[in-house]
Amino acid sequence: MQLILYSKPGCHLCEGLQEKLAQVAKYDFDLEIRDITTNDEWFNAYQYEIPVLTQKLDTAEKPLPRLSPRASVKQLEQMLQKYLVI
Predict the structure, then answer these.
(1) pLDDT at 86
(2) Which Pfam families has this protein been placed in (predicted)?
(3) What is the mean pLDDT of residues 65-74?
(4) 63: β partners
(5) Cβ partners under 8 Å of residue 48, min gap 6
(6) pLDDT in tens, 4-48
(7) Cα separations (Å) of 55 from 10, 33, 60, 62?
(8) d(Cα 4, Cα 13) in Å, to the nearest integer?
(9) In this predicted structure, what is the pLDDT of residue 85?
(10) Neighbours of 76 (CB within 10 A)
């Protein structure tokens, strides 16, 4: 399973979500971090939304709900359980 985190340098919310994702033990996934400042399409789509977490599917990406920056790792795992396509 692959997750994609749209981020940009210096984004503290992005860094916080990335740290929480690293602590998730319940799911085995590869995390790809995409810097939106390196791609105009990503920048235009996500410049006001980051961090954005998506699940990469065969032919598309499925956006996952935005998690509160104050959410715990357990809450992140619960969100993943509810919304991931496994």
Answers:
(1) 78
(2) Glrx-like
(3) 92
(4) 54
(5) none
(6) 999 999 999 999 999 999 999 888 899 999 999 999 999 999 999
(7) 23, 12, 9, 5
(8) 15
(9) 84
(10) 20
Residue 65 confidence (pLDDT):
94
Residues, the chain: 86
Domains of the chain: 2-83 (3.40.30.10)
Q: What is the pTM of this model?
A: 0.91
Question: Residue 3 forms beta bridges with which residues?
Answer: 31, 55
Report d(CA 14, CA 9) in Å as an integer.
Answer: 9
**What tokens appear for 27 in the block?**
């799911």
**How far is the C-alpha of 46 from the C-alpha of 48, rounded, in Å?**
5
**DSSP class of residue 9?**
T
How far apart, in whole angstroms, are the C-alpha atoms of residue 30 and residue 24?
Answer: 12
Task: Tell me the H-state helices in 1-86.
Answer: 12-23, 40-46, 73-83
What is the C-alpha separation between 38 and 30, in angstroms, rounded?
21
